[in-house]
């Protein structure tokens, strides 16, 4: 196997506050690591409460100034569109940073950069099209509604798609006229810092998009608690999301939560089995399975079970593995902590009585053993009450559960605390739509899992979260409605 291309990453990256690249007030730094090797990659400031206060104060001042919230909508649109173009112009550098920081294959890193640019393009086109309504009352009165910004929005994103998810929240929040303070995950902060710099180049006023790096329990908590933050967007685990929601509730601050998933993909005998195999392969290899909406439960009709398992085994036998810069199909998990978690769940599955069709352990090849690589693992003989069928593993692990009737499939699919996404594969569109109406999930994919794009609202039912990102729905998510009643 050839060595990855030589890459150069600056040793240190600063935060972006009030239009300036700055270190942490404490002078402390955090080290990020390359998941492909476990070796140190770069350093970022260890931001804490003082840095968050500086960032939020700067954002509040920038929001209140006429340069942004009172700027004409088409002028905001031009700045956001320029930011989208700058992301595309910088795609190679950003993809390299994303790949080295997160471990994902470079082609996936490039797609994430392109998707981040698309968010700014899409919402730039909406800036001057945000409309209210006229409410007829009587001959002496009329009422109108307007959508207005909150002010400072705190955005906390996880490590699995750092640039994509930063853009997903920041673009609609800025479109409405908010200012944003972005806190990336401590494992993957590099592209967020780069985004903050490009925002200034695009013409966003200093302070409108600040980036504070640091630990969740320090910088993240300070951001959620800050009195000038008027809305919070959090993407991450249910456990942390619950803490964020409690803090926000104490402050009477609205919060959007995009949390975990244990999504089901329901396969009927008349399905396009080539599409099914491709879907499972994508679920297990894309970002090493570290995707909240991944279809990690495969519900297969008993009549199709053997065919589906054979196709999955054949597909997975062709998977290439390696450091992200080599652009394999499967890269490493994000960290030693995540590797231990995934391997722990594989052990749990075995102890619970599930059988492995493929995988089941860590890669031990000489050029992979230093990184956090785990084999794609498929479990059969899984019952719905097993932990591996109910708890989010967040790795390349899929559980196969058989069913015989539509009602049984629905009972299994809806039988977890999560409800982020679901899939149905069948040529019977009537059956698919009937199931879609009864599935407890924020998104349902029919005959192609994870279809859609920036335009399609995304969010969960139950423990998978509150609110919606993406599409026009995000405009409502990041704005508050004002009703004005006029006596004529």
From TrEMBL:
Transmembrane segments: none annotated. Keywords: Oxidoreductase. InterPro entries: Ald_DH/histidinol_DH (IPR016161), Ald_DH_C (IPR016163), Ald_DH_CS_GLU (IPR029510), Ald_DH_N (IPR016162), Aldehyde_DH_dom (IPR015590). The active site is at residue 258. GO terms for molecular function: oxidoreductase activity, acting on the aldehyde or oxo group of donors, NAD or NADP as acceptor. Pfam families: Aldedh. It comes from the Bacteria. Residues 30-483 form the Aldehyde dehydrogenase domain. PANTHER family: ALDEHYDE DEHYDROGENASE-RELATED. Belongs to the aldehyde dehydrogenase family. This is Aldehyde dehydrogenase family protein. It comes from Actinomadura soli. The lineage of its organism: Bacteria, Bacillati, Actinomycetota, Actinomycetes, Streptosporangiales.
